Amino acid sequence: MLHPAVKCASVFLLSTVKFLGGPLAGTSMGLHFWPTLALTVAGMMTSVFVFSGVGRVWVRHRQKQRRLRREPIFTKRSRNIIKVFSKFGMGGIAFLTPVLLSPIGGTVIATLLGVPRQRIMLHMLWSALLWGTALTYASVHFGHMLRH
Questions:
Q1: How many CA atoms lie within 13 A of 112 on its CB side?
Q2: For residue 64, what pLDDT band results from cuts at 50, 70 and 90?
Q3: Rounded Cα–Cα distance for residues 15 and 26 (Å)
Q4: For the chain, how many structural domains are there in total?
């Protein structure tokens, strides 16, 4: 039997890297809805906070490296990301971050696109709350199907 602090730390740390893992881990370890939701959202927002701050420095470094190696700025992947951003804005990036991207990936993309840090934090917060609630609810109420 795992200590409750280990369970909470596992859900939190997993959510900093891969959002979908938080609700699944919380439910599989027997945590209830609210602690799982809170730890999942806190994990994602911690990752967003750290990488939105570090991201600016990293962007400058990558731009310098790209110029030195004379790499193309636009790839097929970057064009698709810019297409989503120009169509749906920061809200679209934030909406897709928990399910398709990771908290780190979505934050880095938003930072690369020059979105202000406060705006990144706000949009990622509502996205984490929305997807966290939906995924935690689904894992709590339908997780029993996986055990049998």
A1: 18
A2: confident
A3: 10
A4: 1
Mean pLDDT score of the chain, rounded to an integer?
A: 89
DSSP code string of 73-116: S--HHHHHHHHHHHHHHHHHHHHHTTTTS-HHHHHHHHHHTT--
Q: Are 5 and 35 in contact (CB under 8 A)?
A: no
Tell me the C-alpha distance between 95 and 87, whole Å: 13
Task: Return the structure tokens found at 26.
Answer: 């919380």
Model confidence over 2-56: pLDDT tens digits? 888 999 999 999 999 999 999 999 998 989 999 999 999 999 999 999 999 887 7
Neighbouring residues of 20: CB distance < 8 A, sequence distance ≥ 6: 98, 99, 135
Closest alpha carbon to 107 in 91, 84, 124 = 124
pTM of the model: 0.85
CA distance 28 to 111: 34
Q: Provide the residue range defining the domain that includes 63.
A: 4-147
The tokens describing 30, both together, are 């027997």
Q: How far apart are CA 112 and CA 136, in angstroms?
A: 30
